[in-house]
Amino acid sequence: MSRLLAETPALPLHEAGKYVAAAYIVLFAMVLIYVTIMAVRLSRIERELGELLETVEARDGEQGRTDPERGS
Amino acid sequence: MYGKGLRSLSIATVVAMSAALSLVFFYAPLEAEQGFLQKIFYVHVPLAIISLCGFVIGGLLAIVHLRTRDARWDYRSYVVIHMSLIFALATLITGSIWAKGSWGHWWVWDEPTLVSFLIVFLLYATYQPLRFAIEDPERQARYASVFAITAGAFVPLNFIAVRMSTSFLHPRVLGSTSNLPGPMALTFLVSLGAMALLFTTLCKYELTAKHTRAQLRALRRRLTADSPGSDVRGAGARSAAPSAIPVSRPTGAPARTAGYPVKGHT
Questions:
Q1: Options 1.20.120, 3.40.1130, 1.20.1070, 3.40.50; which CATH number does B6-215 get?
Q2: Which residue among B36, B205, B219 places its CB closest to the CB of A17?
Q3: Which of B240, B244, B266, B243 is nearest to B255 (CA)?
Q4: pTM of the model
Q5: What confidence tens digit (pLDDT) does each residue in B215-239 have?
Q6: Smallest Cβ distance to B230: which of A14, A27, A59?
Q7: Using DSSP, how many helices (H) and how many strands (E) does chain A show?
Q8: Measuring CA to CA, which residue among B51, B33, B56 is closest to residue B95?
Q9: Could you tell me the residue ranges of all domains in chain A?
Q10: How far apart are the C-alpha atoms of B219 and B213, rounded to whole Å?
Q11: Which of B2, B26, B163, B214 could cross-link with B207 by S-S, CB 3.0 to 4.6 Å?
Q12: Could you tell me the maximum CA-CA distance found in chain A, to the nearest angstrom?
């Protein structure tokens, strides 16, 4: 790796450097924003799944309580 | 369903993007006139090509939707156009940055390529408001498809018209790739491939996320129907406002999702 870096010529970062950096930052910022949005969506889905699981568990518990009553 | 192959696609995208960036900054030679500033070319032009191709693909998917009446195609068309719009926005921003560095102006109104791209962008910016202004899911899908086809046909026409016009400033890329020196052409093609992979991956993520939400909502409705007394309308139900996937159905109607199949429904 160090050999590769030693052989790579230094980038001419003069006036143009800031524009090039800005253009590439725009692309990566957009991808990053998208990933953040996806993360928010994923956490929302996780929360909703948790709610549904709670509902199903509560319903199963209710059925468990009512079935012995019917039996007695 | 949509998540199949997503992991390998994501890995391929990361590898391709890394390869493209390495080639841009360590392999491609500096251009004689613009020097280091020309490196923007490898991000701006692939973004523009992929976004325009995405608009056309969105139109083609809409044709399939109108032919088959299968809502999944409309759904794919919507996601592809949505992603293309984001890529087009990135194209406009990177183009403006390049224009400022190269010409000294953020925008040049007498340049046909720039203005025509802006027109295409603004045209597609009306797609979502138009789509969600219609409440009936089937009409929404049909009208959106008609829009996607019409606008998709406009994109290549616009492209050809611009290329036929005389341009003073904006360089021509397509058709003259062979004029690029070998290393530059290779870098450009790798960047284009990486951008195409990024586009595909993001579309697949979007499709998977929306499909999962639709399945979740269907499951919630089913649970509600099974236990009328229980309250399963949590935060998710509140946020289940009009979305790209019409999944609501009238009470007592057979469980279907306006042509959009959700597992568990018959």
A1: 1.20.120
A2: B36
A3: B266
A4: 0.78
A5: 888 888 888 877 655 554 444 444 4
A6: A59
A7: 2, 0
A8: B51
A9: 14-71
A10: 10
A11: B2
A12: 88
**What is the Cα–Cα distance from B59 to B153, expressed in whole angstroms?**
7
Q: Which amino acid is it at B210? A: K
pLDDT for B244: 44
CB B218 within 8 A of CB B247: yes
Tell me if B83 sits within 8 A of B252, measured CB to CB. no
ipTM computed for the complex: 0.73
Distance between CA atoms of B212 and A43, rounded to whole angstroms?
Answer: 12
What tokens does B227 get? 């236990």
The answer to whether the CB atoms of A27 and B230 lie below 8 A apart is no
Banded model confidence at residue B193, pLDDT cuts 50, 70, 90 = very high
**B230, A30: Cβ pair inside 8 Å?**
no
Tokens 């990361």 sit on residue = B14
Flag whether residue A47 sits within 8 Å of chain B, measured between CB atoms.
yes
Q: List all residues of chain B from 100 to 139 with a beta carbon under 8 Å from chain A.
A: 100-101
